[in-house]
Amino acid sequence: MQIHILTLFPQMFQSPISSGILKRAIDQKLVEFNIRNIRDYTHDKHHTVDDSPYGGGAGMLLKPEPIFEAVEAAKAEISPSGQAFRTSPEEAANTTPIILLTPQGRLFSQPIALELSRHSHLILICGHYEGVDERVRQHLVTDEISIGDYVLSGGELPAMVLADAIVRLIPGVLGSEDSPVDDSHTTGMLEYPQYTRPPVYRDWAVPEILLSGNHAQIARWHREQAISRTLERRPDLLGKANLNREERQLIDRLKN
Ligand code: SAM
Asked: Does the chain have fewer CB atoms within 10 Å around its N or its C terminus?
């Protein structure tokens, strides 16, 4: 996968991509980051990227021209080198999601991360100041994503959040030992509680079943714990979770 990021602050991405899972994915050539400075697509002496809003109002807005040109440059570079590449460069460029990070977008979630992890290319646009000229939304982007109902000062942290959540779902990025299948929100529920050595710490013992070696019973315990934890913390998730009759009965018992 190639992830193209358009930002006024390219340096903010250096640390997240030089350690952990993202670095490992880059080293394994499973993902490639192409970080562009929007300012490089200006044509005036002062490299102006922002201007005051028509009609007044606080702050400055990002001008449309450098953003359109930066996206066009990213699309021109979309090449058959991406891992999941199965189509012609033109087709890939035309089907590449062009995502504006904005608090007004659809709320980011694990299913959206999974959906985006299946693309061979993504273009992420980081806004700043008061945001971007409306014509960027109307005529350039194909998707708008928010990472939560709060306002950050720029789209860089949201872009990193998306990149991290998406890249770990690309097949081969996580080793089998840290497979994402049981992760919270992947199953539609929260993950069960987990323990590691020592078996007793300050009189607090690990649940006996986990030391039993009985894999069937442990799997059942994991499932029951995931259900009760979800019921306790995020009952709203259970409506959509894939549960059998026995598990639904367990929920009724727990509720009572
Ligand atoms: N005036 C804008 C509004 O009210 O919708 C907010 C602009 S915000 C200060 C500057 C930039 O930060 C946005 O253009 C966007 O790229 C990014 N941003 C801020 N909060 C965000 C969020 N919750 N999710 C995604 N991007 C966000």
From this structure: C
Ligand 1, atom nearest to 145 Cα: 25
Q: Looking at 130, 164, 182, 247, which residue is catalytic?
A: 130
Annotated catalytic residue 183: yes
CA distances from 38 to 54, 86, 88, 153 (A): 22, 29, 27, 16
Q: Is 51 in the active site? A: no
Lining residues, ligand 1, CB within 6 Å: 101-104, 126-128, 130-132, 146-148, 150-155, 158
Where do you find CATH 3.40.1280.10 in the chain?
Answer: 2-167
Q: Answer yes or no: are the C-beta atoms of 77 and 33 closer than 8 Å.
A: no
The CATH class that applies to domain 200-255 reads: mainly alpha
Q: What is the pLDDT of residues 2-61, one digit of tens each?
A: 999 999 999 999 999 999 999 999 999 999 999 999 999 999 999 999 999 999 999 999
**Chain region(s) in the chain for CATH 1.10.1270.20:** 200-255
Known catalytic residue: 103? yes
Dihedral sign for Cα atoms in the order 9, 15, 18, 21: negative
CATH topology of domain 2-167: Alpha/beta knot (3.40.1280)
Amino acid letter for position 81: S
Residues 125-161: pLDDT tens digits? Answer: 999 999 999 999 999 999 999 999 999 999 999 999 9
Q: How far is the CA of 150 from the centre of ligand 1 (A)?
A: 8
